[in-house]
Backbone:
């Protein structure tokens, strides 16, 4: 059996075939950019292991963004991600966590480079198209909030 397939079945994925958690924010669904963003991710080589439309609850949003609790933008962020459906994703690629963050671009649209998803598709720091976990540990924690699994 192919070794990657074997590792996948054994649940012992290495960094060369890593999984991460991401979701398309409500602005992306409202602005009809879902196809555009999924297409970019597909063209880059990401494999969609799980994909699900979901309405994030306030409880889930507060848990997801608990590290930002107390910051001035926290409430606006929670309000935005609960304002409409999102697209939850588990994505697989070599070094998926880092690769995805590069493809997405900087959080602030002012500094997100043209060619990145946020650089091309957003002007708002809150409604900034897509969220992606910043580490393997956070991908595990964040995906579990939605009963998804990166292993
Ligand atoms: P996201 O990748 O979902 O992670 C945290 C979010 O907080 C971030 O994208 C932004 O949408 C939002 N946010 C709003 N204001 C700020 C800010 N000043 N600094 C960082 N993140 C911010």
Residues:
């Amino acid at each position: 059996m192919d070794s990657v397939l074997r590792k996948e079945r054994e649940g012992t994925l290495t960094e060369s075939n890593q999984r991460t958690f991401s979701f398309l924010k409500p602005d992306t669904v409202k602005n009809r950019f879902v196809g555009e963003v999924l297409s970019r991710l597909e063209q880059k080589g990401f494999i969609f292991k799980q994909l699900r439309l979901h309405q994030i609850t306030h409880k889930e949003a507060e848990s997801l963004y608990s590290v930002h609790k107390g910051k001035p933008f926290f409430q606006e962020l929670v309000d935005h991600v609960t304002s409409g459906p999102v697209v939850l994703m588990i994505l697989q690629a070599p070094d998926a966590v880092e690769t995805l963050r590069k493809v997405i671009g900087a959080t602030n649209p002012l500094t997100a480079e043209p060619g990145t998803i946020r650089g091309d598709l957003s002007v708002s720091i809150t409604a900034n198209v897509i969220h992606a976990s910043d580490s393997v540990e956070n991908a595990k924690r964040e995906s579990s909030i939605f009963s998804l699994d990166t292993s």
Summary: The two ends are 20 Å apart (CA to CA). Helices lie at 3-10, 26-30, 34-44, 58-64, 74-81, 96-104, 117-121, 136-145.
